[in-house]
Automatic annotation (TrEMBL):
Enzyme class: translocase
Name of the protein this chain belongs to: NADH-quinone oxidoreductase subunit J
Organism encoding this protein: Acidisphaera rubrifaciens HS-AP3
Any single GO CC term annotated in Swiss-Prot or TrEMBL for this entry: plasma membrane
GO molecular-function terms, A-Z: NADH dehydrogenase (ubiquinone) activity; quinone binding
Principal cellular location given in the protein's record: membrane
Superkingdom to which the source organism belongs: Bacteria
Protein's job: NDH-1 shuttles electrons from NADH, via FMN and iron-sulfur (Fe-S) centers, to quinones in the respiratory chain. Couples the redox reaction to proton translocation (for every two electrons transferred, four hydrogen ions are translocated across the cytoplasmic membrane), and thus conserves the redox energy in a proton gradient.
Amino acid sequence: MIVAFFFYVFAAILLVSAAAVVSSRNPVHSVLFLILAFFNAAALFLIAGAEFLAMILLIVYVGAVAVLFLFVVMMLDVNFAELRGGFQRYLPIGATVGVVLLVELALVLGGWKFAPDAMSLRFAPVPEATHNTAALGDLIYTQYVFLFQAAGLVLLVAMIGAIVLTLRDRQTSRHQSIERQHARRPADTLAMVSVPLGVGMAEVSVPPPPAPPARRLAHADGHADGHADPHDAGAAHGGGHHDGGGH
């Protein structure tokens, strides 16, 4: 009696949260309702005795997929008011697709029926030597191994497609030069200065560090081509002021 009560409670919350996922205007609220639906589905799996599926639903879908959905929705900052502006224009196409899907679901459910011995399997004794996780793994990796691999390939293609569609190579971003970092010496970037007592750093003339060999070569090429590096030019300008201050 208690199990049946909790089953109907979790099932009702699952149906309400699933309906809220597709009816919420705020996408962040939709993702939160999706997480609630996952939790209630995991509770139903626990009631059915499939503890492995319940843990996988919480760890994979709630801990990774739903969090990824929430991160993407909040990061993209999509203007949903602008997206809803063309709702009436695309309403006939959307209604047509919805009707086609509804007819397909009706055909599938209309031709579906229980196996003759499906009801009797509910009362079959559960083997004590094999637990739920081992039985599920044995079924997936023996009878449905090719379908399992095919599903993995489909997910791999979807992941590659998402990466290709969202990849943006911005030329204005700064790039890291590993070779220059490895070739850099402490003397190229650090300068040891002896500051007397009572004298601030603003009153001490600090010479600029010498340019590394790679930059010296680029500086030499730039002067040879008539194009000077602005950073090197600034360093030379600063060095001129330092010499002037010394004089």
